[in-house]
Amino acid sequence: MNSAPAIEVRGLRKRYGEHEAVGGIDFIVGRGEVFGLLGPNGAGKTTTVEILEGYRQRSEGEVSVLGRDPARRELELRRRVGIVLQSSGMYRHITVREALDHWAHLYPSPRDVDEVIDVAGLRESEDVRTRRLSGGQLRRLDLALALVGDPELIFLDEPTTGFDPAARRAAWETVRSLKGLGKTILLTTHYLDEAQALADRVAIIKEGRILAEGAPGDLGAGDSSRYRVAWRNGHGLIVQRETDDPTTLLHELTEAALARGERLRDLSVSRPSLEDVYLELTDDG
Amino acid sequence: MDSALGLSWRQYRLERRMFWRNPSAAFFNFLLPLILLALIGGLASNDQKALNIIVPGIAGLSIMSTTFTALAFNMTQLRETGVLKRVRGTPLPSGSYLGALFGSAVTNAAVQIALITVAGKLFFGVGWPKDWIALLVFTAAGVTCFAALGVAYSHAIPNFESAPAYVNAVFLPVILISGVFFDANRAPKLVRDLAEVLPLKYVVDGLSGAMVTGKGVGDNLTALGVIALWAAVGIFLAIRGFSWEARRT
Lengths: 285, 249
Known about the structure:
In chain A, helix 3 crosses helix 4. Chain A is globular, with a radius of gyration of 23 Å. Chain A is built from 10 helices and 12 strands. Chain A has helices at residues 45-52, 75-78, 96-104, 113-119, 135-147, 165-180, 192-198, 216-220, 246-260, 274-282; strands spanning 7-16, 19-29, 34-38, 60-65, 81-84, 153-157, 184-189, 201-206, 209-214, 227-232, 238-243, 265-270. Helix content of chain A is 33%, strand content 27%. By secondary structure, chain B is mainly α. Chain B has one domain. Helices cover 76% and strands 0% of the residues of chain B. Chain B contains 10 helices and no strands. In chain B, helix 2 (23-43) packs antiparallel against helix 3. The two termini of chain B are 33 Å apart. Classes of the chains: A alpha/beta, B mainly alpha. At the A-B interface, helix 3 of A face helix 1 and helix 4 of B.
């Protein structure tokens, strides 16, 4: 394994006629990193990912995936990449095990099919034909099919959309275990908590442009002088105030409360979360 | 991991298994022409002249249904359900994949021609084919031509729901005017003219020569030329309009 980035994108643009879906974006994904592209629907996430996967030709810019240009669609590159598309179909009369076994034979050094069945949580449905699988099971099959070739780099385009909370947690665990194996993962999502839970770094994308980029924690603290202090007042209502100087504010608040003989119930001090940053950046108002 | 050819063979075997697991596809692709042969051949059982037309006619029909109809239908379904897109993201070479789909359609055509040939000998008084080489050549030409046209036609079908309507809108009129069930020379002039432009009539002529009259490839070169021309158009359009992705996203 070398130290060159897994993905490099520079000045990437994609136009469909007059409409510019991706308007000049740059980012780098290091080896072994989980990188999240976070943004509302129609922001250009899928277009970007599908250019990196080799499905679409870019209009402008430089793109490198594992050191190769995905637009050339080399077999060598496709052998090292696993793809979970936002939606894709499967033969309706194939069983889960048959599908994975068939897919495994397309790759030079596949993972053990049984192991992948367990990782994806498909043990109970391994002999079920795909037409009888539930939406969640199909989505797990998508993941299993992307993993069975033991890829170095995995694209996950909104992998948990439509999952119930338990299935979502399970999928997150799978992504974490992949990271543990040293895999590089490019994840798109419109769920903030998902980006926060999984990604080492996040790029917030809207209308084809990257608005902010960094570790989820750093992004939230982007303006490092802002703190939010909240508490419940005497009438039981939440009060919150933003400040650059929480030390002084807290001192004043606690002093006043003590003087009145009250307690500041539910007192908290927080820095703006990724959610605040995301909503602020993607807000149209 | 296998070579491109090995992968194609593996994919072909999967396609065969999937074909037999889908009862309606197996029925329409496989049994329908044979049932038609049994019914119409049975009705005309005392009329050898009619049987001599019907047996190669049904053979031509089954070439068209196993390739044109099946591929127009399957390619639309694979495209619209997103299977093509998924396959496109794997290291399976496109040629290996499409070759397997084509091979599966050809297998159905070959088995049907074999069954119809045997039935022609055993039940319909046609005897064994007079010219085996012509049978092989016209089957191969017909299969190539209609497979290419089927894939090309799938590009015009906007979604899977409308695929049966689109396919039958071509298939039914073409088999009716191309001399599958009756002697095409007795049809009205307009119908005859139309059939003369389309490839199925020539496939049936070639098969008729091979199975009934003993006319070989050399006697039917014009027919072979027309089929080749349609095949070339079909291949060009099949490649040109090819899309790995669903029309609606």
